[in-house]
């Protein structure tokens, strides 16, 4: 059986979705494969997000990740997680969709980035624990997501 794939999606794939991908690879690698993407492209990962993940977890997102569009991830994922950014996503077939409703810390201080990272860590661990039950049911139809703040 193939390993489940979880996609973390936001507008620019530059902050929260990148943090989620990095933390999922650290804390849930035994449960699923993590990818992230955006509907628009930024030229780099948010430097404050990079610094926060490096400081808290010792991970270098710039060495292992890059901003990417939805077309760069698998055409079907098992779980689609939106970060709470109100973008319009094209249809992405999946078995389960959830929105984490995380506020974008961009433009705020280090405390906001740390709080976001800690919230993502907790949500990633929770998702890993819930994943078998989530994937036990029938596949969800492809949907259009309506999501809109910058990431």
Describe the structure.
There is one protein chain. This protein is of the alpha/beta class. It has a single domain, classed as Rossmann fold (3-Layer(aba) Sandwich). The protein has 4 helices and 6 strands, in the order βαβααβββαβ. The strands form 2 sheets. A 4-stranded parallel β-sheet has the order 2-1-3-5, with helices on one face. A two-stranded antiparallel sheet has the order 4-6.
Structure in a nutshell:
This protein is α/β, with parallel strands linked by helices.
List keywords for this structure.
151 residues, alpha/beta, Rossmann fold, four-stranded parallel beta sheet
| CATH topology value | Rossmann fold
Structural class comes to alpha/beta
Principal-axes geometry comes out as globular
Mean pLDDT equals 87
Please report the first level of CATH classification, the CATH class. Answer: Alpha Beta
Number of strands: 6
**How many domain units?**
1
For CATH, the homologous superfamily is named as Response regulator
Q: Biggest sheet, in brief? A: 4 strands, parallel
Regions with little confidence, pLDDT below 50 for 5+ residues: 141-151
Helix content: 25-40%
Distance between the termini: 34 Å
Strand neighbour order, sheet with most strands: 2-1-3-5
H-E string: EHEHHEEEHE
